[in-house]
């Protein structure tokens, strides 16, 4: 009897360890991460929050089922931006990741002749997905952005 109890306890402990090490921290508030990225990192530009419908004009999210979004954009004089998306599924987050990569590529092309100094930020853009979430941060502080994002994801 004792051996069965010990075995059950050990199996439960192993399951907890495996769950804790899965790499995903689970659900989080996309607005909280968006606000943290906007307020805890210094930007050259003033970023303004925008809704998903407006952002869809420059982010091709038509094939991505987005549940919630926190999006901040600069004035256009810099490449600085924040996009935090909660998607309906992991597959949608994978599609969103490609959309964010495409966005950075498009911005690199746009800023090459417009404001080439912004290429440093764009080349260091932070894009991360985890589960149903996808995040993009373009700033002068990619290391700080990674730390903040890692706190959530």
Fold blueprint:
Elements: H1 2-20, H2 30-39, E1 48-50, H3 52-55, E2 66-73, E3 81-87, H4 90-114, H5 119-123, E4 126-130, E5 133-138, H6 142-152
Task: Describe the 3D structure.
The chain has one domain (25-152). 48% of the residues lie in helices and 19% in strands. The chain is built from six helices and five strands. It has a five-stranded antiparallel sheet with strand order 1-2-3-5-4, sandwiched between helices. The relative contact order is 0.17.
**Helical content (DSSP H or I, runs of 4+):** 40-55%
Which regions have little confidence, pLDDT < 50, spanning 5+ residues? 1-23
Shape: globular
Q: Reading side by side through the largest sheet, how are the strands ordered?
A: 1-2-3-5-4
The number of helical segments is 6
Number of strands: 5
Strand content: 15-25%
Largest sheet: 5 strands, antiparallel
Q: Which secondary-structure class do the elements indicate? A: alpha+beta
Mean pLDDT: 87
Cα-atom radius of gyration:
19 Å
**Domains (count):** 1
Our measurement of the CA-to-CA distance between the termini, rounded to an integer number of angstroms, reads 41 Å
